[in-house]
Amino acid sequence: MTGRPPKGKLLGVVAMDGPSGTGKSTVSRRFARDGGAAYLDTGAMYRAVTLAVLRAGLPADASTDAVLAVARAARLRSGTDPCAPHIELDGEDVEAEIRGGEVTRAVSVVSAVPAVRRLLVQRQRDLIADALVETGGAVVEGRDIGSVVLPDAPLKVYLTAPAEVRAARRAAQDRKAGRIADLDAVLADVRRRDELDSTRATSPLHAAPDAVVLDTDGLSVDAVLARLTELSHERGLLT
Ligand code: DC
Q1: Is 50 in contact with 107 (CB distance < 8 Å)?
Q2: Which ligand 1 atom sits nearest the alpha carbon of residue 24?
Q3: Which atom of ligand 1 sits closest to the CA of residue 46?
Q4: What pLDDT sits at residue 7?
Q5: Which atom of ligand 1 is nearest to the CA of 25?
Q6: So what CATH class is 12-234?
Q7: Cβ < 6 A, ligand 1 pocket
Q8: What are the residue boundaries of the structural domains of the chain, listed by start?
Q9: Cα 202 to ligand 1 centroid, rounded to whole Å
Q10: Alpha-carbon gap, residue 217 to 159, rounded angstroms
Q11: DSSP output for 42-87
Q12: H helices then E strands: how many in the chain?
């Protein structure tokens, strides 16, 4: 397979789901960029709400009412430009801070709160609708995009890879970003988050029945992009 970019413009929505470390963000951003489409990182929204909860001095497992009140009050602004993804919380760019250890450890607990999910799913749908008016196409990444946020998406892809492979990728990313990364600790965190994300009562992580499942173990980013290009052509999403 070659890494040729999409020939033409992406029209419509591609839902990209799967656990962390599957290459989802890299692939989603590049595919959106190459197709002249918008890009939405829904994980960043759950991370930003988690940061707001921590900044409010609450533990991640505070009462639902307390967490929801913070989530409602948090002013989030999500950029949808794949070349410059960023998220603001109350007017401050928090793109770097939401990737740190404190937020990463707490985010699965906050994102399991059903009322927080309802709030963010609605905001995600609004953002996607706006982006579609502006650019005509969007790549949206998360855990429940194909199953809950956009059940009618014309292309749903679920990326997967063994936990060890995903942990090694995450550790490499952390080191590149200047964060300390102990492989055993990262693997333990990946397994803990997989468990929490896939066993929560509301919108657990799972592939939608009509999603195309792609195991990215041993596949380069270019190879995954080539497969997405193929699938988008098949579904008539690339002009
Ligand atoms: O993709 P990420 O690692 O930045 O996501 C952070 C957390 O947010 C992850 O533990 C699961 C949660 N999440 C979610 O529950 N639903 C989404 N659509 C996106 C992320």
Answers
A1: yes
A2: 1
A3: 8
A4: 65
A5: 1
A6: alpha beta
A7: 20, 42-43, 46-47, 107-108, 111, 142-144, 193, 197
A8: 12-234
A9: 13
A10: 10
A11: HHHHHHHHHHHHHHTT--TTS-HHHHHHHHHH--EEE---TTS--E
A12: 8, 8
User: pTM for this structure?
Assistant: 0.93
For helices 24-34 and 221-234, the axis angle rounded to 10 degrees is 50
Two tokens, residue 102: 């404190």
pLDDT recorded at residue 2: 45
Sheet holding 155-160, edge to edge: 38-41, 137-142, 12-17, 155-160, 212-215
Distance 146 CA to ligand 1 centre (A): 14
Q: Give 129 Cα–ligand 1 centroid separation in angstroms.
A: 21
Residues of the chain with pLDDT under 70: 1-7
pLDDT tens-digit series, residues 107-149: 999 999 999 999 999 999 999 999 999 999 999 999 999 999 9
Residue where the block lists tokens 């988690």: 50
